[in-house]
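Q: Got a minute? One more chain.
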Amino acid sequence: MKKRFLAFSAALLLTVTYAVADEGMWMANLLDKQLYQLMKSKGLKLSPAEIYNENGGALSDAIIAIDGGSCSGSIISPNGLMITNHHCAYGDVHALSTPEKNYLEDGFWAMKMDDERPIKGKTVTFLRRVKDVTEETHKLMDSLDKIGPRGIFFMRKVSGILEDKYKTPGYEVGLSSMWRGEKYYLYFMETYTDVRLVGAPPVSVGAFGGETDNWGWPQHKGDFAMYRVYAGKDGKPAEYSSSNVPLKANRYLTISTKGVKENDYTMILGYPGRTNRYTSSFELKEKYDILNPVISGVRRAKLDVWKKYMDGSDAIRLKYSDKYFGISNYTDYAKWENICINRFDIIEKIAANEAELQNWINAKPERVAKYGKMLENLKKGYETIAGITKIKEYFRESIVRGAEFTGNAQRFNTIASTAIKAKKDSISPSDSNVVYFYKKVAKPAFESSDVTADRELFKVMLRYYVKEVPASYMVPEFKELLAKCDNSTDKLADYVYDNSVLTDPARLDNFFNVKRGVNEILADPMIIIVKSSGIVEYNRTEDKLLKDAGLDMASLRTDYTHAMYEMNLEKGNSTYPDANSTMRLTYGTVGGINARDAVYYGYQTTTAGILEKIDPTNYEFKVKPGYEAALNTANWGKWGQNGKLYVNFLSDNDITGGNSGSAVLNAKGELIGLAFDGNRESMAGNAYFVNGYNKCVNVDIRYIMWVIDKYCGAGYLLNEMKFSDK
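A: Always. Here it is, folded:
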């Protein structure tokens, strides 16, 4: 038995990830008695209807997607109290912070409902119902095919027709595809937009261990934060208003104070974002050889510059904390994914599956006609575009996603492009797009970024760009400017930052104070940098290479998925859909890991590990004096067990991005923790599940309650929660 993962259908739980070979799986067969008995044999105490029920009242009614699925959360009180990860709330806490009231560093707690802070743009979405519309969707697609060619917006049209047909008052309706079109489901959702921050511990608790511990084990993070969902007086979603009331929850989770032990049943409900378990060996090789090295290399260089300035100034740290946090996570992921791909021979394992697939294809003439050269052409396609893929990725990382002010320059250039399309040769300070850019983008940049730090970052990014991107992809103006600077990227960077209107507040104000010609914008040296080449040009090159080779990569990827699906279905193997931000359930057990030869890690950490790691000289392991004192006092109350307070634990649930903040539940559906991370040994998991090594890192709910109750002094919140000690 390997990995277990479920998706939801209208009738029952749609999928269970379960048993075959050495793979973790998210399958998509209707939950039958055999699979349900398998879950029960692992300890499940609930019926399928208690987990998902379109008539309401099941566990799934307490599970939410945050901001469209960037994270997951759960309702833990009848009054709309919601819990998720601290790192999911990081940006909101950062946005509320100022040098005078730095909630990121000091923590934030609303001691009464009136103090809860509205978060503009925050949304939480509840899944209310799912409908299988596969047959109807295929018929609709066939009927539209008779009218004319599909075109690039074909599926948008299909979705629009079905979503309009099933439009339901008070609900959003969305069409989702499984296995690249083998199955289609309509999801009926309810989204609330009045969401208020209730509390978050200091970052030194929520992100204790920082990058050093990220994706690692053992960890000791108190990775949690709390919001409250508000509704109109009728209980329905409503825009923020002081007259709104806390949501009366259809279902909320009971919190278990019993704790966990090895081999305990666990399940996680949430909204995993994206996996690629149907990736070909050729696509994964591209990621291993090209994409991951470029991403991890360039972004690490970027982070090193930021860290230098952040370590030297609290003010700069506050400016860059959220940006640094967001970028560092995937930078480390790309690095460790490559390590795991190599360590576990993932490309070779997928290639072996493809050999089996080719034999299956060759066994019948109709399969040969449909898929015969599919694998050969996929291989040829990735080899054909390997060179331009690497060039394009270096351009994206060094210029498009590089320094902060080059990002602003791309928007600045858009103003000129818009004027040119409108056949204007000048822009006025009163033009709406100019006013927006000046007030909402260019001016605030000086508050959110440090020009000196960005100048140094720009120098680093330019070195990558000039070294890795052929001159043939650079516009003449860029090459001329570089030549005037003695072909020195450092001199070029200084020239740009000394002369661009975007990099000095006085120059910016002066420029946007009067009417300006479009050519004046285009002459800005920062514009010349971002115009040096563009994604359109790289894509055009890629498209031409593939066209000349007679290859359609999108169709080939779809054929690959369909062929794998059909083969597995015919052979009775578990078939499972990739994650696509729809609700899923994964089940597993609590347990440690044999990480390497002669290295075994236990499944739980305690506060003793925090005290061992505390280091006042290292920001990632520096804590507040009051917090350290509270740990030393060891007043665990009812949250402790055998004189200890447990902090994090491991389970073998199958998670990915989007699952952050997901509820970790016991066999009775009670909340025992929050999922917040994977382990370094699992970093190839989005492509291939390696049994025994893919682990989920969770924060123990009892530690969360202790932090709220004993350290943060917000124990009043516990009064609205329901607890179980059995």
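A: The longest strand covers residues 183-192.
Q: Perfect, thanks.
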